[in-house]
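Weekly structure sync, notes
Attendees: PL (lead), two postdocs, one rotation student
Agenda item 3: pending single-chain targets
PL asked that the sequence for the first pending target be pasted directly into the notes so everyone works from the same version. It is reproduced below exactly as submitted, 393 residues in total.
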Amino acid sequence: MREVLKDLIDAVEAGHTVGLGTVVRTFRSAPRPAGASMMVDADGRAVGSVSGGCVEGALYELATGVIESGTPKLQRYGITDNDAFEVGLTCGGIIDVFVEAVSLKTFPELPGVGADVDADVPVALVSVIEHPNPAWLGRHLVVRPDGFEGSLGSDRANHAVSDDVMGLLAAGRNTTLMYGPDGERRGDGMRVFVASFAPQPRMLVFGAIDFAAAVAKQGSFLGYRVTVCDARAVFATKARFPVADEVVVEWPHRYLQGQIDAELIDPRTVICVLTHDPKFDVPLLEVALRHEVAYVGAMGSRKTHDDRMDRLREAGLSAAELDKLSSPIGLDLGSRTPEETAVSIAAEIISLRWGGKGGRLSHMDVRIHHVPLADADHEGAERPNLQLEPAEE
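Predicted structure, written out during the meeting:
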């Protein structure tokens, strides 16, 4: 939803009613993740995408109808013999899209969500997408670390859902949650979709070398907030790393420990150690490997790696802590240039995030789109009884 949020807010603040379609569940090789959105404004302009082109035409018509009727609709799009090349997903995936009419009247809290996102303040948007009482459909709750505003339909539901969403917000996850009609945790009937807008995940690149410039570019491209850090002021300059969000002159281990103490490092953070100098990287890795982050990779030859591991063992790191280290850094792509090496590092980060193996898809008989392990059970929960709804009525 982030990609259409500004256009959405601009339209509703101008007094318009907008049709918004959001992917709330995916199955198999769906082309876009949960949270991807497409909006249709009052002038008929479409912004965003839910499938990369497969079903946007059908969704446009549905969103236009929802604007006129004001009645939300949960629509499933999937491949069938009749609609595979018309409005189905030719990739073989299945997506559930919740389509609603959005205006300041239906969602007065929306501009505040946009302000939080612009200010990098964590905020989550909860929408009722299924409920036995149609009056609850499309109701919203805005959840922040210090509380919530809006209403799903009852105080009980508001408190139950907001409590559960806090954890999703901290991790920056989008997903659906099931409750009883009044927010009962042991029940079904009400399903809500949670879109979390957490601050950008961070990439910390240590070592102001030419490889770091290439890695910083890859990190920025992937959506990370990139910091380059080196103790040598002559090398750690903004002119050498224009893509980085910040360039810091400090001993790497001191900088990282300070960021941890300030609670500015979270489980989504990735750390790339490119110094391959023991006086820099060993103290740094002692700190990094003892903290919960998504990725720690270190550059160096096999000989450098072996020496580094011996020094880390002498420093008292456990086998479990050492197992978290990706060294030598990156996937085996045959990389030689800094740019190619940066691609291999980015590829390793992506593969660890989604559970990919790094092999050639043309030589493998596996799913193309992976899901995080935390979402795997949810994604497959209803597969045995899937019934495809027609794409159009």
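Discussion points:
- Residues 107-198 form one domain.
- Confidence is low (pLDDT under 50) at residues 80-90, 372-393.
Action: rotation student to compare against the earlier draft before next sync.
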